[in-house]
Structures are given as structure tokens and as C-alpha cells.
Amino acid sequence: MKPKAAAPNDDQVKAARVIPTWAGRYARNRTLPSVVFFVTYALGTAALVGLASAAERAYEHGERTQAALFASFAAAVFAWLLWFVFAGGRTISRAISARMYGKEGAAATAHMEQVEGQAQSLSAAQLLVLCCVAVWFALFLAGVIPSRQLLPTSALFLVPFLSYVFAVKRRDLVSPFMLVWPALYAVHALLLVMGAPIYIEGGPRGLYEAANMVVPTLGYGLFAALLGHLYSRFALHQLRALAGPPERDAADLA
Amino acid sequence: MSELDPDIHQSTRLRILALLSGLGRADFNFVRTALQLTEGNISSHMARLEQVGYVKVIKGFNGKVTNTTYRLTTRGRASLNRYWETLDALRRSARREDSGGRS
Fold it and tell me: pLDDT by residue (tens digit) across A124-141?
């Protein structure tokens, strides 16, 4: 004879009421794809800087073949980075994350599901920020913006853009922790403007100065994504606690 | 007063529906991870929920591995909302009776 279906007790009913909230929080904070994206991009950037500086050194020592080899590797890495950022990054990050989340399973909120598979076109805000980046970089090359002011000037358009993306445009799709990124970026820029001793200098041909842009753009982004990931672990822990102890098979089949 | 939906008023099915109501979709592995249910339990309860039209079961492939995804249907969401409303009404009524009996 089949056992009778078990009606939920008061505690189970109370738990069931908050399960949707924690499930949604968990799904929104699955930021492993962003973590993978930032780490890959950071490694690619490091490889590009290393190869470019090796090419320059070889050229200065008169080893033109070696310089050409390093330069072509650097060009290949640069082309791959462009492809990664604008085309393949999302697919690669998702594939890697799917493997990492494999055992845990997949979950998405209704909002995430709606936009999945849709072609992502450049929005007016993205086009505007790309124009700002182009003008900002041209002004730097022309010597109008000194390297010390690169970060504060970039904050003028990047902080509003990132805040708009995370707080408005993709509010229901990304972890709220991603807002930590523009917040830290703004604080870093303000500290630099106020003369705080946080500007990094030195290295061969001032190579370490690159860290002044890499830390806020990649480092804070990675930090925000890691915070989101940690919160998703906490949300999953809460979900499992609400679900109660593991059940034995066929114990409560209707 | 209407009665509680027997297809929802069961501890495991209530948790499954609550989980799916907070999500657009969840796959088999996630339901197992989050609710700590066994494969047999998930399959039998999902079959029942699919039968009454509360859950949509989508069988597919993730590479070469089979992957089953679950979604709460519009009917399932409406029934769950109705279940909460009925439960709240029953509790209010029980509280009234309880305080009436004491006075």
C-alpha cells in the first residue's frame, strides 16, 4: 500500500513562502560567467602588455626578427581580445560556467529567460560610451589628458554608464552587487583627484602605470562579480536550509 | 469556504512549486540541489504536477547528456496564488474561532 501524502506542517508552509525570494536571489547572483569573463580578459590584457613590451625591448636591441615575432603575437592577442569582448566572450564564459555549475544545476529568473537567446544590439548608451572612449583616448594620445588624469576623466563617462546599465537597463538580469564596481571606480577617481597617494608608478618604461587603469576597470569588476558569486552561495545555503533535511525516496509519494 | 488544492497541499510539491514560482526555469539538478530531493521523488512529483497542468516539463540535451527543465505554467502560478489566499483565509477563520471560543 502506498503511504499517504504528507501535508505540510506550519514550519514547512512558512519556509515555502520565502523559498521564491531566495530562489530569485540565487539565480540573479550566479555571477560565475562574469568572473570567468574578467579573469580571461585580465589574463589576455597581461599577455598583450607583456608581448608588446618584449617586442619593444627586442627592437631596441636590434633583434628585428624576434621583435616582429613578438609584435605579431601581440597583434593576434589583441585581435582575440577584441573578438572576446565583442563576440565570443559571453559564449565562452557561459560554456565554462555551465561546466562549473554542472553538478549544482541551472536556474534562471523569468526576466533572464526572456532575454536569453535574443540578439544583443548596441544600445544608444553603449554607442555614446564608445564615442567617449574614442575621444578620451585621442585626447590622451594628443597629450591633452595627462596619464595621472586618465582614470578621473574616464570616470566621468564610465561611472554613469555602468550605474545606468546595472541599476536601470539590466536591473532584473544582473546581480545588484555589480553596482559595487562603478561605486569603487568613482571613489578611486575621487581619491586621485584629492591627491591621495594611490597612483602607481615605476616599472620598465612606466609599465606599472597601466595598473592605474587595470585595477579599477578589471579589478573592481572582478571584485563585484566575486561578491555576487559569494552571495549566491549564501542564497543556496538558505534555500537548502528552508528545504529541510534530505528526503528518502518514496517516503511521501502521493 | 474553498478547500486547499490537494495537488499543492503536500510538503514536497509545495516546495517544488514555491521554488519554481521564484524562477523562470530550473533544471533537474538544481531542483535536486536546492530541495535535497531524491531523483525518484522529483520525477514522481513532477509527473503529477505536469499531469494537472501546473508544471511544464521540457526534455532536452546539454551536449550529449539529457537535461530536463521545469517551468511553472500560468495555471500553476494562479493555483499557487489561490492556495496561499485560501490558506490565509483558513488561518484567519481559525484564529477568529479560537478567540471566540476563549471569550
Answer: 888 898 899 899 989 988
Residue A7 domain flag = no
Instruction: Please indicate whether, in this complex, the C-beta atoms of A114 and B24 are within 8 angstroms of each other.
Output: yes
From A98, A105, A110, residue closest to B30, measured CB to CB: A105
Query: What is the tens place of the pLDDT at every residue in B12-66?
Result: 999 999 999 999 999 999 999 999 999 999 999 999 999 999 999 999 887 778 8
Chains A, B: CB pairs < 8 Å: 131
Q: Is residue A3 part of a domain?
A: no
Paired with B42 in beta bridges are none
Per residue in A144-193, pLDDT tens? 999 889 999 999 999 999 999 899 888 888 899 999 999 999 999 999 99
The CA distances from residue A180 to A187, A219, A234, A242, B19, in Å, are: 10, 11, 18, 29, 28
Q: Which of A10, A13, A94 is best to mutate for the B interface (most B CBs within 10 A)?
A: A13
Contact across the interface for B32 and A105, Cβ inside 8 Å: yes
β-strand partners of B58: B69
Q: How much is the ipTM here?
A: 0.90
Residue among A26, A108, A254 minimizing CB distance to B24: A108
Residues from chain B contacting residue A103 (CB–CB below 8 Å): 29, 33
CB A151 within 8 A of CB A159: no
> Cβ of B39 and A249 within 8 Å?
yes
- Provide the 10 A C-beta neighbour count for residue A115: 12
- Cα dihedral angle (A184, A190, A196, A202), rounded to 10 degrees? 70
**Residue A233 falls inside a structural domain:** yes
Coil vs helix vs strand at A196: coil
Tell me if A23 sits within 8 A of A107, measured CB to CB. yes
Which architecture does CATH list for B11-96? Orthogonal Bundle (1.10)
Residue A9 in domain: no
Chain B positions touching A245 (Cβ under 8 A) are 36
